[in-house]
Amino acid sequence: MRPRFVLFGDSITQGSFSPNGGWGASLANKYCRQADVVLRGYSGYNTRWALFLLAKNFPEKSTHPPYLVTVFFGANDAVLLDSKDNSKHVPLEEYKSNLLKIVSHIKASNNAAHIILITPPPVSEEHLQIRAWENYGVPLSEPPSRRNETTEMYAKACIEASKEANVAIIDLWSSMQEQPGWQTKYLSDGLHLTPDGNSFVFEKLLEVLKAKGLCSEAMDFDFINFPQIDANDPLKSFIF
Amino acid sequence: MRPRFVLFGDSITQGSFSPNGGWGASLANKYCRQADVVLRGYSGYNTRWALFLLAKNFPEKSTHPPYLVTVFFGANDAVLLDSKDNSKHVPLEEYKSNLLKIVSHIKASNNAAHIILITPPPVSEEHLQIRAWENYGVPLSEPPSRRNETTEMYAKACIEASKEANVAIIDLWSSMQEQPGWQTKYLSDGLHLTPDGNSFVFEKLLEVLKAKGLCSEAMDFDFINFPQIDANDPLKSFIF
């Protein structure tokens, strides 16, 4: 059976198969004969609610547990308490503790699973406000639902969790901001990913996979490549 | 467990998660909280070789058999016998018989599985020749590897197989040619799909899914939608 790469997260994961280079679709394309990329993205979810999804998505006695899991939450946990959207807010310490519970649960389903934590991306407060005005008529004088300096604290907590749990990390919050114009180059509405933002996540993921020895070139191919099939005696190409 | 949509076919399936709107990725995006879209595309394969893939990909005693399967072969079976690529050629009658064997095997793994046969797309002989010259230096005076009137016979055999097996059909060969300029609008190299060609396959697939009562709007959502979660008592939203 093919290894399963499970993408677990919020809307940035749920939308990762969107046209125009979604990072999940790009991963499925790259590993098209090697791994099944399984989408477990839940728009609007924070880590507190994600805990309720673990038993069903990562059953402890699975006969085919995940080989690799990306855990990509925080954008909703970091919503500000004084925002209208504050039902999504999760306190910083609880966020970190929830991430550790998620990792622990996944390891219980397969102790050898490769786990990659991904920090929330940075947010562009200005564009969050513009989008809130355009979509919901929220006056531009209202503060944004998220602040970048708050999201930074959640990104740092995510990095701490990765160290404590000894799993890989992609620090999107920092690495995206190294690019001038990241606010619109990588983000479509101050929070979600543009095609360039999707490519950025995909490339960062490939870097981590390579470092783990899991680059596509190093993994087994599913069945023989067609030029190697002996057309006069194909059966022998399929005997394992 | 989420229903599984398995895409079984040749390179046009293997490449269906490519960036720029691959039809498989679009399907996964559309059903992102409802179904797992599983890629089983094998570049260069014909139906004769596909038979060797059935036992592993569609085990008879699966605890989680596919809910829906697209079977999309024929582009390689229809390669001309007098072409240099002729090891892929499968005689017309055998092609039809192999399709029926594939359908029969999938039904054995789950008699209720929704099966959709897809005919090979039309081929543009001129562009096949240009691509063979560009990629492999084949003189333009050489005949193309496939002829559209030959592929038509394979498309018709695929339609016959769908009727005999009482499964759904997408007649790509005919429907694509209804659009003027289909040769370059839908095909990138005379055979494989452009972004428009991918969109075309995706739309045809949605039409069949709708006719079967399987449109996204009619299917269950995976877990509760976040605005319905009671933030003060989330547990009750996750008790089944």
Automatic annotation (TrEMBL), chains A, B:
<dbReference type="Pfam" id="PF13472">
    <property type="entry name" value="Lipase_GDSL_2"/>
</dbReference>
<feature type="domain" description="SGNH hydrolase-type esterase">
    <location>
        <begin position="7"/>
        <end position="198"/>
    </location>
</feature>
<dbReference type="InterPro" id="IPR036514">
    <property type="entry name" value="SGNH_hydro_sf"/>
</dbReference>
<dbReference type="InterPro" id="IPR013830">
    <property type="entry name" value="SGNH_hydro"/>
</dbReference>
<dbReference type="GO" id="GO:0016787">
    <property type="term" value="F:hydrolase activity"/>
</dbReference>
<comment type="similarity">
    <text>Belongs to the 'GDSL' lipolytic enzyme family.</text>
</comment>
<keyword id="KW-0378">Hydrolase</keyword>
<dbReference type="InterPro" id="IPR045136">
    <property type="entry name" value="Iah1-like"/>
</dbReference>
<protein>
    <recommendedName>
        <fullName>SGNH hydrolase-type esterase domain-containing protein</fullName>
    </recommendedName>
</protein>
